[in-house]
């Protein structure tokens, strides 16, 4: 069933029922179900930041769906040389069937969606990473089940913010621990509350992981924050997912990757049976394929 939304800029652009159906579809496509609707479709992919998973999963995904994906890096198109975003958006919309964009400023992906006459998918902004959330929720469904409790421990960043809202939509309980100066936007908890979640963030990682089935973290220094490295490393003391923090729990560990081993997570934790990270990475493609056919595929 096509989605009601024209664009996918954050996870709550879809309804909980649509999210549930997308995850069902993703699981079916992972099991081999195909869809012919994007056989002659082209996805334009704008990247202002580097990527491994997002680029490769969308490009491979479009190939699997019979369509084509076009990589548009900062040096490849006029956008990187001064052409206004709204002009780029209007022109791309005349050619391609959808645009996936990885940008710094979240307002830019909104501008893209406003001016491009085709669906726009957020492939990560400084505020949100909804495609990651789709993959995360699929992974939780497959492994621990949606009655799980997931603790977000670390930076209150793009990945965490979309995850907290998406988890609320899927009925997954969430606890959140971040340093005081690096918390999530309070709006995130208001949006989660709209789906019945009562998330009280804390600054205590041990409190957050108490009773959690999964502990989820991400890098402390996101792309574009390199200047904050020293102050963030100091602020995140005690937030590392390591054997000490996880002692006494058999919680699984999630990470959107790329991981900075020795910072937010230790090598031994990432290499242990706790880690769900490779499933998360694989599930990016299956979840996005479901999204692509429902958002771009029409009736
Ligand atoms: N998780 C994720 O989005 O990874 P990339 O930065 O490699 O795309
Ligand atoms: N928070 C990280 C996620 C990378 C996928 C970043 O924005 O760099």
What can be said about this structure in brief?
Helices cover 41% and strands 12% of the residues. With 299 residues, the chain is of the alpha/beta class. The strands form two sheets. It has a four-stranded parallel sheet with strand order 2-1-3-4, sandwiched between helices. A four-stranded parallel sheet has the order 6-5-7-8.
Describe the structure.
- With 299 residues, the protein is of the alpha/beta class.
- It folds into two domains: 11-129 and 284-297, Aspartate/ornithine carbamoyltransferase (Rossmann fold); 132-280, Rossmann fold.
- The protein has helices at residues 16-30, 53-64, 85-95, 106-115, 130-142, 158-170, 186-194, 205-209, 229-235, 243-246, 267-270, 277-296; strands at residues 42-47, 68-72, 98-102, 120-122, 149-153, 173-177, 214-217, 252-255.
- The strands form two sheets. Strands 2-1-3-4 form a four-stranded parallel sheet, with helices on both faces. It has a four-stranded parallel sheet with strand order 6-5-7-8.
- Helix 2 links the parallel strand 1 and strand 2.
- The longest helix has 20 residues, at 277-296.
- The chain is globular, with a radius of gyration of 19 Å.
- The mean pLDDT is 97.
- Norvaline binds next to helix 6.
